[in-house]
Write a structure and sequence with these properties.
Number of helices: 5
Shape: elongated
Number of strands: 0
Order of helices and strands: HHHHH
Number of domains: 1
Radius of gyration: 19 Å
Distance between the termini: 36 Å
């Protein structure tokens, strides 16, 4: 029996799961923003956080020799590198949050809104 997604009722379990994901994402985003001193109060602040690239951001795959792989994590050994990685994580989580919000809106068939 096959039904199209247009005729199905909203699935409360899936919606509830997406709300949990959003809650977790919001918590981590807030912690990163506080640690990095990045305001996220307005849409402009959020757009700036997403689109501002750190010049020291990692590009592509980082290659290390075998002794570096066994040593302490490099993020902990260099505060600037840690900050760069946190900024990358914040950008990714912001994008993920908005994607999850879109899925939730589609799932409950609400009118798209910001």
């Amino acid at each position: 029996m096959s039904t199209s997604s247009n005729t199905e009722a909203p699935r409360p379990l899936a919606a509830g799961h997406l709300v949990e994901i959003l809650t977790d994402l919001n918590t981590r985003i807030a912690r990163l923003a506080i640690a990095l001193h990045i305001p996220l109060n307005t849409d402009a602040d959020i757009q700036e956080a997403i689109h501002t690239r750190d010049p020291q951001a990692p590009h592509g795959v980082e290659r290390r020799d075998s002794s570096e792989r066994r040593s302490a994590p490099r993020a902990a050994s260099n505060p600037e590198r840690r900050t760069t990685l946190q900024r990358c994580e914040l950008r990714g989580l912001l994008v993920m949050r908005f994607g999850t919000e879109i899925k939730l809106v589609e799932l409950i068939r609400a009118a798209p809104s910001r």
